[in-house]
Specification:
Pathway: tRNA modification; 5-methoxycarbonylmethyl-2-thiouridine-tRNA biosynthesis. One of its GO terms (cellular component) is elongator holoenzyme complex. InterPro entries: Elp5, P-loop_NTPase. It comes from Metarhizium robertsii (strain ARSEF 23 / ATCC MYA-3075). The protein is α/β, with parallel strands linked by helices. It has a single domain, classed as P-loop containing nucleotide triphosphate hydrolases (Rossmann fold, 3-Layer(aba) Sandwich). The chain has 9 helices and 9 strands. It has a 9-stranded mixed β-sheet with strand order 3-2-4-5-1-6-7-8-9, with helices on both faces.
Amino acid sequence: MAAPNTVHSRSHSLLLLQKLLNLRDSASPLTLVLDGLEQPAQPVLDEFMTRAKISKTKVILLSFATVKKPQTVDVMVKAAGRDLRLVAKELAAHYPVFDPTQPREKPSQRAIILIDSLNSLASTAPSSLSHFLSSILTPAVSIVSVYHTDVPILLPPSFNEYEPHPFTILNHLATAILRLSSLPQEIDRQKARNRAVQEPEWGLKEDREGVIIGLKPRAPDQDRGVVVDMELRRKSGRTVTEKFILQRHLLAAGKSGTGRITLLTDHAMFRPAEADRDDAEEPESTFSLGLTEKQRRDREGIVLPYFDAQTDIGAGEGGRILYEMGREDDFDEEEDEI
Protein backbone atom coordinates (compact mmCIF):
# COMPACT_ATOMS: atom_id res chain seq x y z
CA MET A 1 0.00 0.00 0.00
CA ALA A 2 1.36 3.42 -0.98
CA ALA A 3 2.20 5.88 1.77
CA PRO A 4 -0.17 8.87 2.22
CA ASN A 5 2.65 11.32 1.44
CA THR A 6 3.38 9.53 -1.83
CA VAL A 7 -0.27 9.58 -2.87
CA HIS A 8 -0.55 13.28 -2.02
CA SER A 9 2.61 14.15 -3.96
CA ARG A 10 1.41 12.14 -6.95
CA SER A 11 -2.00 13.85 -6.99
CA HIS A 12 -0.41 17.27 -6.53
CA SER A 13 1.92 16.77 -9.52
CA LEU A 14 -0.92 15.63 -11.78
CA LEU A 15 -3.05 18.61 -10.77
CA LEU A 16 -0.21 21.01 -11.55
CA LEU A 17 0.13 19.70 -15.11
CA GLN A 18 -3.65 19.69 -15.56
CA LYS A 19 -3.76 23.31 -14.42
CA LEU A 20 -0.93 24.20 -16.80
CA LEU A 21 -2.56 22.53 -19.81
CA ASN A 22 -5.90 24.15 -19.00
CA LEU A 23 -4.17 27.55 -18.54
CA ARG A 24 -6.33 28.06 -15.48
CA ASP A 25 -5.74 31.05 -13.17
CA SER A 26 -2.77 32.20 -15.29
CA ALA A 27 -0.77 29.14 -14.28
CA SER A 28 1.96 30.07 -16.77
CA PRO A 29 1.92 33.30 -18.82
CA LEU A 30 4.80 32.05 -21.00
CA THR A 31 5.21 28.32 -21.59
CA LEU A 32 8.25 27.14 -23.53
CA VAL A 33 7.95 23.76 -25.29
CA LEU A 34 11.28 22.22 -26.30
CA ASP A 35 11.02 19.57 -29.01
CA GLY A 36 13.23 17.90 -31.60
CA LEU A 37 13.24 15.70 -34.66
CA GLU A 38 12.62 12.56 -32.62
CA GLN A 39 9.62 14.01 -30.79
CA PRO A 40 7.75 16.98 -32.30
CA ALA A 41 5.61 19.24 -30.14
CA GLN A 42 2.40 18.69 -32.11
CA PRO A 43 0.77 16.26 -29.60
CA VAL A 44 1.30 18.75 -26.77
CA LEU A 45 0.00 21.65 -28.88
CA ASP A 46 -3.07 19.58 -29.80
CA GLU A 47 -3.68 18.99 -26.09
CA PHE A 48 -3.49 22.73 -25.39
CA MET A 49 -5.90 23.50 -28.23
CA THR A 50 -8.36 20.76 -27.26
CA ARG A 51 -8.56 21.97 -23.68
CA ALA A 52 -8.83 25.58 -24.88
CA LYS A 53 -11.85 24.66 -26.99
CA ILE A 54 -13.49 22.96 -24.02
CA SER A 55 -13.01 26.04 -21.84
CA LYS A 56 -14.08 28.35 -24.71
CA THR A 57 -10.69 30.04 -24.86
CA LYS A 58 -9.78 31.79 -28.10
CA VAL A 59 -6.86 30.15 -29.92
CA ILE A 60 -4.56 32.44 -31.93
CA LEU A 61 -1.73 30.94 -33.98
CA LEU A 62 1.29 33.17 -34.55
CA SER A 63 2.79 31.51 -37.60
CA PHE A 64 6.46 31.59 -38.54
CA ALA A 65 6.44 28.23 -40.34
CA THR A 66 2.80 27.12 -40.70
CA VAL A 67 1.23 27.76 -44.10
CA LYS A 68 -2.37 26.55 -43.69
CA LYS A 69 -4.59 27.39 -40.72
CA PRO A 70 -5.47 24.30 -38.66
CA GLN A 71 -9.12 23.58 -37.94
CA THR A 72 -8.71 23.92 -34.18
CA VAL A 73 -7.29 27.46 -34.50
CA ASP A 74 -9.63 30.45 -34.42
CA VAL A 75 -7.26 33.06 -35.87
CA MET A 76 -3.96 32.68 -37.70
CA VAL A 77 -1.53 35.60 -37.88
CA LYS A 78 1.45 35.26 -40.22
CA ALA A 79 4.62 36.79 -38.81
CA ALA A 80 7.41 35.49 -41.06
CA GLY A 81 9.34 38.39 -42.59
CA ARG A 82 7.07 41.08 -41.12
CA ASP A 83 7.73 43.99 -38.80
CA LEU A 84 7.21 42.88 -35.21
CA ARG A 85 5.37 46.09 -34.33
CA LEU A 86 2.77 45.42 -37.01
CA VAL A 87 2.48 41.82 -35.86
CA ALA A 88 1.88 42.89 -32.26
CA LYS A 89 -0.74 45.40 -33.40
CA GLU A 90 -2.58 42.75 -35.43
CA LEU A 91 -2.49 40.33 -32.51
CA ALA A 92 -3.96 42.93 -30.17
CA ALA A 93 -6.90 43.36 -32.54
CA HIS A 94 -7.90 39.72 -31.95
CA TYR A 95 -7.65 39.82 -28.16
CA PRO A 96 -10.85 39.39 -26.11
CA VAL A 97 -12.65 42.60 -25.26
CA PHE A 98 -11.72 43.77 -21.78
CA ASP A 99 -14.61 43.82 -19.33
CA PRO A 100 -14.07 46.53 -16.67
CA THR A 101 -16.51 44.82 -14.30
CA GLN A 102 -14.30 41.73 -14.10
CA PRO A 103 -11.07 41.65 -12.05
CA ARG A 104 -7.87 41.83 -14.07
CA GLU A 105 -6.52 38.67 -12.41
CA LYS A 106 -9.53 36.56 -13.49
CA PRO A 107 -10.95 37.82 -16.80
CA SER A 108 -14.15 36.28 -18.10
CA GLN A 109 -12.70 35.66 -21.58
CA ARG A 110 -9.21 34.39 -22.25
CA ALA A 111 -7.00 33.77 -25.27
CA ILE A 112 -3.98 31.60 -25.96
CA ILE A 113 -1.26 32.48 -28.47
CA LEU A 114 0.55 29.53 -30.04
CA ILE A 115 3.93 30.33 -31.58
CA ASP A 116 4.88 27.47 -33.89
CA SER A 117 8.61 28.27 -34.02
CA LEU A 118 10.70 30.69 -32.00
CA ASN A 119 13.81 29.76 -33.96
CA SER A 120 12.93 32.11 -36.81
CA LEU A 121 12.27 34.97 -34.41
CA ALA A 122 15.49 34.28 -32.51
CA SER A 123 17.50 34.32 -35.76
CA THR A 124 16.02 37.47 -37.30
CA ALA A 125 15.51 39.65 -34.22
CA PRO A 126 17.43 38.25 -31.24
CA SER A 127 17.75 41.64 -29.53
CA SER A 128 13.98 42.28 -29.73
CA LEU A 129 12.95 38.82 -28.55
CA SER A 130 12.20 39.64 -24.92
CA HIS A 131 10.55 42.98 -25.75
CA PHE A 132 8.24 41.43 -28.34
CA LEU A 133 7.10 38.59 -26.08
CA SER A 134 6.46 40.99 -23.22
CA SER A 135 4.49 43.37 -25.45
CA ILE A 136 1.94 40.76 -26.54
CA LEU A 137 1.27 39.48 -23.01
CA THR A 138 -1.81 40.65 -21.13
CA PRO A 139 -3.63 39.30 -18.04
CA ALA A 140 -6.13 37.62 -20.38
CA VAL A 141 -3.55 36.15 -22.79
CA SER A 142 -1.12 33.26 -22.31
CA ILE A 143 1.67 32.28 -24.70
CA VAL A 144 2.67 28.73 -25.60
CA SER A 145 5.78 28.80 -27.78
CA VAL A 146 7.78 26.04 -29.45
CA TYR A 147 11.56 26.01 -29.71
CA HIS A 148 13.29 23.36 -31.84
CA THR A 149 16.42 22.33 -29.97
CA ASP A 150 18.02 20.66 -33.00
CA VAL A 151 17.64 23.67 -35.33
CA PRO A 152 20.68 25.98 -35.16
CA ILE A 153 20.21 29.70 -34.58
CA LEU A 154 21.92 31.87 -37.21
CA LEU A 155 22.64 35.13 -35.42
CA PRO A 156 22.96 38.30 -37.55
CA PRO A 157 26.37 40.02 -37.85
CA SER A 158 25.07 42.97 -35.82
CA PHE A 159 24.46 40.77 -32.78
CA ASN A 160 26.64 41.71 -29.83
CA GLU A 161 28.78 38.77 -28.78
CA TYR A 162 28.52 39.84 -25.13
CA GLU A 163 24.73 39.57 -25.13
CA PRO A 164 23.18 36.33 -23.87
CA HIS A 165 22.11 33.77 -26.43
CA PRO A 166 18.41 33.92 -27.41
CA PHE A 167 17.85 30.43 -26.01
CA THR A 168 19.26 31.59 -22.67
CA ILE A 169 16.85 34.54 -22.68
CA LEU A 170 13.90 32.26 -23.43
CA ASN A 171 14.81 29.94 -20.57
CA HIS A 172 15.00 32.95 -18.27
CA LEU A 173 11.67 34.45 -19.36
CA ALA A 174 9.64 31.23 -19.40
CA THR A 175 7.43 30.53 -16.40
CA ALA A 176 7.08 26.88 -17.46
CA ILE A 177 9.34 24.67 -19.58
CA LEU A 178 8.16 21.40 -21.14
CA ARG A 179 10.96 19.20 -22.48
CA LEU A 180 9.61 16.51 -24.78
CA SER A 181 10.98 13.09 -25.63
CA SER A 182 9.63 9.91 -27.17
CA LEU A 183 8.26 7.27 -24.82
CA PRO A 184 9.55 4.31 -26.91
CA GLN A 185 13.02 5.82 -26.91
CA GLU A 186 12.91 6.47 -23.16
CA ILE A 187 11.92 2.83 -22.65
CA ASP A 188 14.92 1.70 -24.70
CA ARG A 189 17.19 3.97 -22.67
CA GLN A 190 15.80 2.58 -19.42
CA LYS A 191 16.38 -0.98 -20.62
CA ALA A 192 19.99 -0.07 -21.38
CA ARG A 193 20.41 1.46 -17.91
CA ASN A 194 18.98 -1.67 -16.32
CA ARG A 195 21.58 -3.76 -18.15
CA ALA A 196 24.34 -1.24 -17.33
CA VAL A 197 25.18 -0.72 -21.01
CA GLN A 198 25.55 2.42 -23.09
CA GLU A 199 22.26 4.15 -23.84
CA PRO A 200 21.21 4.23 -27.51
CA GLU A 201 20.96 7.48 -29.46
CA TRP A 202 18.79 8.59 -32.35
CA GLY A 203 18.75 11.27 -35.03
CA LEU A 204 21.56 13.81 -35.00
CA LYS A 205 23.10 12.34 -31.86
CA GLU A 206 23.90 9.12 -33.71
CA ASP A 207 26.64 10.98 -35.65
CA ARG A 208 25.92 8.95 -38.77
CA GLU A 209 26.18 10.12 -42.34
CA GLY A 210 23.17 9.90 -44.61
CA VAL A 211 19.44 10.34 -44.18
CA ILE A 212 18.19 11.02 -40.66
CA ILE A 213 15.62 8.44 -39.59
CA GLY A 214 13.26 10.05 -37.12
CA LEU A 215 10.62 8.72 -34.80
CA LYS A 216 9.19 5.33 -35.72
CA PRO A 217 5.72 4.29 -34.48
CA ARG A 218 5.45 1.38 -32.10
CA ALA A 219 2.77 -1.30 -32.28
CA PRO A 220 2.07 -1.79 -28.53
CA ASP A 221 -0.56 0.67 -27.43
CA GLN A 222 0.85 1.14 -23.92
CA ASP A 223 4.26 2.17 -25.30
CA ARG A 224 2.97 5.02 -27.48
CA GLY A 225 3.13 8.50 -26.05
CA VAL A 226 5.17 11.58 -25.23
CA VAL A 227 7.35 11.97 -22.15
CA VAL A 228 6.89 15.50 -20.77
CA ASP A 229 9.58 16.77 -18.42
CA MET A 230 7.83 19.68 -16.69
CA GLU A 231 9.64 22.53 -14.97
CA LEU A 232 7.08 24.88 -13.44
CA ARG A 233 8.26 28.08 -11.81
CA ARG A 234 5.94 29.33 -9.11
CA LYS A 235 5.40 32.96 -8.18
CA SER A 236 7.34 32.37 -4.97
CA GLY A 237 10.41 31.42 -7.02
CA ARG A 238 10.19 27.73 -6.15
CA THR A 239 10.60 25.31 -9.05
CA VAL A 240 8.47 22.18 -9.37
CA THR A 241 9.81 19.42 -11.62
CA GLU A 242 8.13 16.17 -12.60
CA LYS A 243 7.99 13.78 -15.56
CA PHE A 244 4.72 12.68 -17.15
CA ILE A 245 3.45 10.56 -20.03
CA LEU A 246 0.93 12.12 -22.42
CA GLN A 247 -0.99 9.69 -24.63
CA ARG A 248 -3.36 11.15 -27.20
CA HIS A 249 -3.94 8.20 -29.52
CA LEU A 250 -7.39 6.72 -30.02
CA LEU A 251 -7.40 4.09 -27.28
CA ALA A 252 -6.06 6.45 -24.60
CA ALA A 253 -7.99 9.64 -25.35
CA GLY A 254 -11.02 10.47 -23.25
CA LYS A 255 -14.55 11.23 -24.40
CA SER A 256 -13.81 14.95 -24.49
CA GLY A 257 -10.82 14.43 -26.79
CA THR A 258 -8.19 15.15 -24.15
CA GLY A 259 -5.26 12.82 -23.73
CA ARG A 260 -4.44 10.56 -20.83
CA ILE A 261 -1.83 11.91 -18.43
CA THR A 262 0.10 9.69 -16.03
CA LEU A 263 3.30 9.95 -14.08
CA LEU A 264 6.37 8.43 -15.67
CA THR A 265 6.93 6.35 -12.55
CA ASP A 266 3.49 4.74 -13.04
CA HIS A 267 4.79 2.98 -16.15
CA ALA A 268 5.96 -0.58 -15.53
CA MET A 269 9.41 0.10 -17.01
CA PHE A 270 10.08 3.17 -14.82
CA ARG A 271 8.42 2.02 -11.61
CA PRO A 272 10.95 2.29 -8.74
CA ALA A 273 11.94 -0.79 -6.79
CA GLU A 274 10.00 -1.44 -3.61
CA ALA A 275 11.89 0.08 -0.72
CA ASP A 276 9.60 -1.27 2.00
CA ARG A 277 10.57 -4.88 2.60
CA ASP A 278 9.67 -7.22 5.41
CA ASP A 279 12.26 -7.26 8.19
CA ALA A 280 12.12 -11.04 8.32
CA GLU A 281 12.99 -11.36 4.65
CA GLU A 282 16.50 -12.70 4.15
CA PRO A 283 18.79 -11.89 1.22
CA GLU A 284 18.91 -14.49 -1.51
CA SER A 285 21.74 -16.99 -0.98
CA THR A 286 22.65 -20.63 -1.59
CA PHE A 287 22.94 -21.30 2.16
CA SER A 288 20.96 -20.32 5.23
CA LEU A 289 21.99 -17.08 6.92
CA GLY A 290 19.49 -17.38 9.76
CA LEU A 291 19.97 -18.55 13.34
CA THR A 292 18.48 -21.60 14.97
CA GLU A 293 16.53 -21.25 18.20
CA LYS A 294 19.46 -22.61 20.27
CA GLN A 295 21.92 -20.21 18.60
CA ARG A 296 19.58 -17.32 19.30
CA ARG A 297 19.31 -18.26 23.02
CA ASP A 298 23.08 -18.65 23.34
CA ARG A 299 23.63 -15.26 21.73
CA GLU A 300 21.21 -13.56 24.09
CA GLY A 301 22.86 -15.22 27.12
CA ILE A 302 26.35 -13.88 26.42
CA VAL A 303 27.48 -11.18 28.83
CA LEU A 304 29.96 -8.86 27.18
CA PRO A 305 33.18 -7.99 29.10
CA TYR A 306 32.48 -4.28 29.43
CA PHE A 307 29.31 -5.04 31.40
CA ASP A 308 31.30 -6.99 34.02
CA ALA A 309 33.93 -4.26 34.20
CA GLN A 310 31.29 -1.77 35.31
CA THR A 311 30.25 -3.80 38.38
CA ASP A 312 31.60 -3.22 41.88
CA ILE A 313 34.34 -5.87 42.25
CA GLY A 314 36.47 -4.24 44.93
CA ALA A 315 38.17 -1.01 45.83
CA GLY A 316 40.59 0.23 43.23
CA GLU A 317 39.84 -2.61 40.82
CA GLY A 318 36.95 -1.13 38.87
CA GLY A 319 38.96 -0.84 35.66
CA ARG A 320 40.78 -4.16 35.58
CA ILE A 321 40.48 -6.50 32.60
CA LEU A 322 38.46 -9.65 33.19
CA TYR A 323 39.65 -12.73 31.34
CA GLU A 324 39.06 -16.43 31.86
CA MET A 325 41.78 -18.72 30.57
CA GLY A 326 40.80 -21.63 28.40
CA ARG A 327 42.39 -25.01 27.90
CA GLU A 328 44.26 -23.84 24.84
CA ASP A 329 45.85 -20.85 26.65
CA ASP A 330 49.49 -21.14 27.73
CA PHE A 331 50.20 -19.13 30.88
CA ASP A 332 53.42 -17.16 30.73
CA GLU A 333 54.79 -15.89 34.05
CA GLU A 334 56.85 -13.21 32.32
CA GLU A 335 53.73 -11.48 31.04
CA ASP A 336 52.05 -8.79 33.06
CA GLU A 337 49.70 -9.97 35.74
CA ILE A 338 46.17 -10.21 34.54
